Each structure stands twice: as structure tokens, then as C-alpha cells.
């Protein structure tokens, strides 16, 4: 009976769905996390009577045919790149992006990774780095005698020294991709460019279409816990229904085996 294998694909699909939902809920407090959504496609169909083929009656065709589907498969886990809410932290090195774009960070192998997590720190040399110590790209260094640091919406890093004099020590650049969902997540709130994402367009926070920078804020996760719990319950029920189909099929097989 094909029903048993069909229901098994349904259970496997819902297992993947629950795993994606679990990851969303686990990252509800992760800075700039973007929720994921599992997407599915039906499998191939077996046709005992193909639609449009000639029927037993001369000169007529089958208007519907007989097709039986063979189940479902996971086609993708899509990343929903909606803006998360901004949380006031009061930390002058916390930078949130309001709009489209990513910060660039330089990895140890000189590869540029991309992130919306703007919880930056200062290295021992005064360089602006991520929580893992990766320097921001392009590199920005804050002098040791700086009394105050201001990052305006245009991305300019302005430093005030002990004499009250202000100087510009650099400007943050942003990166935008044709297909943000095509970026490869590597953990640590970082992404890498892929053939699917396309090549990045570099711009400044003041450029049209690019995000503005909000100093003293961080972007929160865009996970909606109520929505995730609702989807979790639906996935659990779908998993149970597929298991019921397997139980029913097993009972039908037992009935057939008991026929004398």
C-alpha cells in the first residue's frame, strides 16, 4: 500500500518543519536574527489513466484521469528578511540598521562576511570589532584619548578629544544584495555571499535605498513567538495525522492477511 510510504514522507516533512520552528524560537532573543520558514512541494504522481488520453469510448478523451500522488518533500527553508524592532541599549558602540543593508566584517582569511548585528566593541588597538573580534570593513580605529564617539545616520564616526575638538575617523559602509535570502548563514550572526545572493552593492547609509544607522540601538529578532507556537501546534497535529494514516494502513494490511 502506497499510503504508508506517502504518510511517512508527510511525517518527515513535518519533522523538518518542527526543527525550523524550534530554531526560530531558540533565537527569539538573538540580535538581528531573521526567522526561517520551511517550504514544501508535492512529489511525482503515478497515473493509471493519464488525463487527456483516449477513453474506451471512441473519439473521446479522459477529462480528469487517475493520478495518485506519492507524498511531499522539503523544497527550501526560506529566510524572512523583515526588519526587526529596534531596542534602546544606550551603548555608544551599539549600531542598528533601519532599512536594507548589512555591515561588512573581515574574517581571518580576509574574506568579507556580512551581518546586521551591530553590537560592536573596541579591540585593544582601538579598532571597531564584532563580539568575536572580527574588524569592521572598512576598518575604523578610535583614538585612545577619545572622550566621546558619535556615529550619525550617515555612518560617519566622529570622535571628540580631551580638548573638545571633533574629528572624523572613518565612515561605515553598507552592503546590499539582489537576493538577501540567498546568503549563506555561517553562525555567529554572519552571512557569506553566494551565487544565489548575487554580488553586493556597496553604499553609504545616506545613499538612497540603504539603511540609516541608529547609534545606541540594536535590531531585535523578527521572530513572533505567538505565530511560531501556532505553527508548532499545526505541525504537531499534521505529524499525528500522518502517523494515524500509517496505523490505519497497518490495520488494513492485517485485515488483508487474515482473509482466508
Automatic annotation (TrEMBL):
NCBIfam families: FlgEFG_subfam (TIGR03506), flgG_G_neg (TIGR02488)
Main location: other
Residue ranges occupied by any Flagellar basal-body/hook protein C-terminal domain in the UniProt entry: 214-258
Entry's Gene Ontology cellular component terms: bacterial-type flagellum basal body, distal rod
Cellular location(s): Bacterial flagellum basal body
Annotated Flagellar basal body rod protein N-terminal domain residues: 5-33
Domain Flagellar hook protein FlgE/F/G-like D1: 96-158
The keyword Chloroplast appears for this protein: no
Name this polypeptide is given: Flagellar basal-body rod protein FlgG
Subunit relationships: The basal body constitutes a major portion of the flagellar organelle and consists of four rings (L,P,S, and M) mounted on a central rod. The rod consists of about 26 subunits of FlgG in the distal portion, and FlgB, FlgC and FlgF are thought to build up the proximal portion of the rod with about 6 subunits each.
Single GO biological process annotation from the record: bacterial-type flagellum-dependent swarming motility
Keywords (A to Z) from UniProt: Bacterial flagellum, Cell projection, Cilium, Flagellum
Family: Belongs to the flagella basal body rod proteins family.
